[in-house]
Amino acid sequence: MRLEVPIYLALVAVTVVSAQINYQNPQFGNRGEEECCQEYCYFTDVEPYIQFATKTAYESLNRKSTGAQHIVPDCTPMQFWSLNRHGTRLPKATRIRELRNLEKIQSEIVANYEQRSSYPNRGRFCIEDYNILKRWRWNDTITEDKGFSLTQQGIEELKILARRYKSKFSQLLSGGYDERSFFFQYTSADRTHDSYQAYIEGLFGSDAFRVHANTQIDNRLMKPYEDCEAWQKNEADNQFTRTEYERFKESPEYQQMVRDVFRRLGFKYTLNASIVEDIYDMCRYEKAWYLNRHSPWCVAFNKDQLKLLEYAEDLKYYYESGYGNRISERIGCGPVKDFYDRFERTVNGNSDGVRATFFFANSDTIQTVLTALGVAKDYNPPKADNYHTQTSRNWKTSLIDPFAANLVSVLYQCRGPEKFKVMFFLNENPVDFPECSVGLCNWSTIQQKYEDLVRTCDVEEFCSGRSSSARVLVSSFLLTISVMFLRW
Ligand SMILES: *[C@@H]1O[C@H](CO)[C@@H](O)[C@H](O)[C@H]1NC(C)=O
Ligand SMILES: *[C@@H]1O[C@H](CO)[C@@H](O)[C@H](O)[C@H]1NC(C)=O
Ligand SMILES: *[C@@H]1O[C@H](CO)[C@@H](O)[C@H](O)[C@H]1NC(C)=O
């Protein structure tokens, strides 16, 4: 008893002293100056982190492609199929309004910096970073009425992409346009139409005006989550459960990142975390719009913080339209069935003559299709509480679904026992399935892998809610009964 009193007094004394230290260094919160944010200067970093999840600029990706993987010895490309995400775009209208408010945050940061010039520098941004952020202005050509539209950079991305594919698969894609050999379709959105327009200009140049797209816009195939009752019901059912994305944003490491960012920007107090998301968006959008420039807003983050923000985004998509949503595969099967049926007709010798097929859609379509195909799957699912074990995860939307993401499948005719082979390219890199050989799959392997998916694929029926749950229930009931009988 007597011993405890001095210990208690000592604790009080320590608390009072440390409270005073904090009071003297309010910008460093509860940690000492030495522990505060890592020293980092974005401006002088020759290799800044540019993986910005689904808002990554396509051209900033470091493609592994040597440019020759599409050449397969003893094989000739017979048919080309592609699914393209639209290129770099502007944010939606309401987001443009929100991001414009960063002008206010910027002036607060400038005030913070000017007032605090005598404060220790550690953890704050370097003078170069401060200077580029100070000079930032909102680009007045970006107005709310342009929400969601493709940028000039976005148009270039699709044009250049088309030219690269044309030179790689010249047997199929050059030689001019003719209606029977080419099939084009885009979803009902300006940004996918404009991406299509840029792509055909890349393919056919001044001849592009002759191109006909399939005007019977079939959103069930390329945008099935819209008007899909089953998808919306799933979302409604889950709206009261906290998602992994939300849980990650409440995690200690995310909260710490938010505090550190505000501290780096000279704020004494932590503001609403949504401002960090605004700054992140501005940083990654500007990087994609003006490819060869620094975005002044990127100076707010060091590399580790950008990786954390990227992970939050990956979690969001993983559980929305990736493997974390059991419905993804059910609606992503549509495009898989489309190329499978087309290739199968060619393999069976009754091709309809279409050599090349092109779809233009959105990020969710890319992700649900990759999920249906089994691409970028992780053995250990990314979760809110396993960030540190996920640094080499396959589900990195920066790499699989940047602006202008593209999935290509090519049917080859070959000499040898397997007459037909298929190769997939994701963002121009071969997709390396374990069942295949350096990306090249026997047609029989593709059949084994996807036949069930394709045969049971009925997005129309699934979305209208007529199928699935009810039928799964009935069939599992019947299965139970038959198992009971068998046991008997
Ligand atoms: C503003 O955006 C336009 C395109 O909308 C671009 O051409 C121009 O370079 C931008 N200006 C600045 C200062 O970034
Ligand atoms: C933070 O901002 C978001 C979006 O502006 C808002 O919905 C939320 O209520 C704010 N949170 C707090 C704690 O003020
Ligand atoms: C493809 O098929 C051939 C002949 O049927 C077989 O020898 C080869 O191992 C198969 N390759 C792969 C990657 O499955």
Automatic annotation (TrEMBL):
<keyword id="KW-0472">Membrane</keyword>
<keyword id="KW-0325">Glycoprotein</keyword>
<dbReference type="GO" id="GO:0034417">
    <property type="term" value="F:bisphosphoglycerate 3-phosphatase activity"/>
</dbReference>
<dbReference type="Pfam" id="PF00328">
    <property type="entry name" value="His_Phos_2"/>
</dbReference>
<protein>
    <recommendedName>
        <fullName>Multiple inositol polyphosphate phosphatase 1</fullName>
        <ecNumber>3.1.3.62</ecNumber>
        <ecNumber>3.1.3.80</ecNumber>
    </recommendedName>
</protein>
<dbReference type="GO" id="GO:0052745">
    <property type="term" value="F:inositol phosphate phosphatase activity"/>
</dbReference>
<dbReference type="GO" id="GO:0003993">
    <property type="term" value="F:acid phosphatase activity"/>
</dbReference>
<dbReference type="InterPro" id="IPR000560">
    <property type="entry name" value="His_Pase_clade-2"/>
</dbReference>
<dbReference type="InterPro" id="IPR016274">
    <property type="entry name" value="Histidine_acid_Pase_euk"/>
</dbReference>
<feature type="disulfide bond">
    <location>
        <begin position="283"/>
        <end position="298"/>
    </location>
</feature>
<keyword id="KW-1003">Cell membrane</keyword>
<dbReference type="GO" id="GO:0005886">
    <property type="term" value="C:plasma membrane"/>
</dbReference>
<comment type="similarity">
    <text>Belongs to the histidine acid phosphatase family. MINPP1 subfamily.</text>
</comment>
<keyword id="KW-0732">Signal</keyword>
<keyword id="KW-0378">Hydrolase</keyword>
<dbReference type="InterPro" id="IPR029033">
    <property type="entry name" value="His_PPase_superfam"/>
</dbReference>
<feature type="signal peptide">
    <location>
        <begin position="1"/>
        <end position="19"/>
    </location>
</feature>
<keyword id="KW-1015">Disulfide bond</keyword>
<feature type="disulfide bond">
    <location>
        <begin position="75"/>
        <end position="414"/>
    </location>
</feature>
